[in-house]
Amino acid sequence: MSGPWERRWHLLFDEWVVISASSAARPWAGARSEGAKAAVPQHDPSCYLCPGVTRASGDVNPDYKGPFAFDNDFPTFAGHAPTPTHALDTAPNEQALSQNPFAIVAASRGQCRVLCWSDRHDMTLADLPVEAMGDVAKLWQSEFIVLKSNDEVKQALLFENKGVEIGVSNLHPHGQAYGIPFVTTNTKRMRTAQARYAKQHGRSLLVDMLQHDSVKDILIVEKAKHWSVVVPFAARFAYETWIVPHVAVTDISEINEEVLLELGEVYHRQARRYDALFQRQSPNITHFHNAPCDNDPDNTHWCFHLAFQPPLREPDKLKYIAGFESAAGNMTNPVQPELAAARLRELNI
Ligand SMILES: [Zn+2]
């Protein structure tokens, strides 16, 4: 066995991650992942994200070029969501939990947006020319501002699910933005950890992380002018990376155009690294971690960042959320984070 066999503390989630390089050496007789096999056309008239297509709602997409966003026709959260009988407006308090913990319910009000990165049905963000990333980055920012200004929304969550391996229903390159009427569980944990550190040290947890001896020069994949790409010390996924700013901002609406445009370029390079690492269009889940918009005073200690969570551990092997992870909540990672960073750093993109 090479590599560590240990538990590492996740600085944002306040939990153990099991780094288990020994499990990577197990004989593999399981499924092999190949991704999508069929050739993908430039324009698909049956794709409801393509230009000029009539969607399920009856709306017709404009003949757009570049990025384009619209309200999801099948939203998880929407302004017209019904109010259930006996619905609560907020999370249940102690009295509600003690009197009747069996059927607590609230309305799913909010807003869901679909964010098309390009008019091209067949291109991922990594395939697009880097010049196209400026408009994509501006869409990330403007869509966040749309959701943040919605009074129903307590958290705006932008993310991309990419690849058939993680169940994407439409291959058109796109992300999603959810305006959610509550602060999600992981976000609460991340806020608590960042606020605790900032109150003790007067600085940002994530910005300080970039300078720590265990991280700088070892876990950094790329250091640009305004952003660094880093493998977290307690990475929960093999080849997980974060894009962290050198100066903390609470959300993407606070960064100026120069910083925003560099974020697009850094994102583009990291997406290309994953394609180079796995030698194909790499599946991925990408999160944009903005501070919640619920007016909690601890939001001021939040540091906006991005997280890539690729589901592959090797080019043809998926990392499954199986018995241990689903029962425990804690993750096991079969790849030593320092080794993952070195491999990503050495790629020719
Ligand atoms: Zn399409």
What is the topological layout?
Blueprint: E1 5-10, E2 15-20, E3 68-71, H1 94-99, E4 111-116, H2 133-148, E5 155-162, E6 174-180, H3 185-201, H4 205-211, E7 220-223, E8 227-230, E9 241-245, H5 257-278, E10 284-289, E11 305-308, E12 312-314, E13 317-318, H6 323-328, E14 332-333, H7 337-346
Parallel strand pairs: 2-14
Antiparallel strand pairs: 1-2, 3-4, 4-6, 5-6, 5-10, 7-8, 8-9, 9-11, 10-11, 12-13
Helix pairs in contact: 2-5
The structure holds zinc ion.
Zinc ion is lined by residues 44, 47, 49-50, 121, 172.
What's this model, at a glance?
Helices cover 24% and strands 19% of the residues. With 349 residues, it is an alpha+beta fold. It is globular, with a radius of gyration of 21 Å.
Which sheet architecture does the biggest sheet show?
9 strands, antiparallel
Number of helices in the DSSP assignment: 7
Strand proportion: 15-25%
Termini gap: 30 Å
Q: Identify the CATH class of the largest domain.
A: Alpha Beta
Gyration radius over CA: 21 Å
Give me the CATH architecture of the largest domain, please. Answer: 2-Layer Sandwich
Mean pLDDT: 92
Uncertain ranges:
none
Instruction: List each distinct ligand once.
Output: zinc ion
CATH homologous superfamily of the largest domain, by name? HIT-like
Overall number of domains: 2
Query: According to CATH, what is the topology of the largest domain?
Result: HIT family, subunit A
How much helical structure, as a percent, in the residues?
A: 10-25%
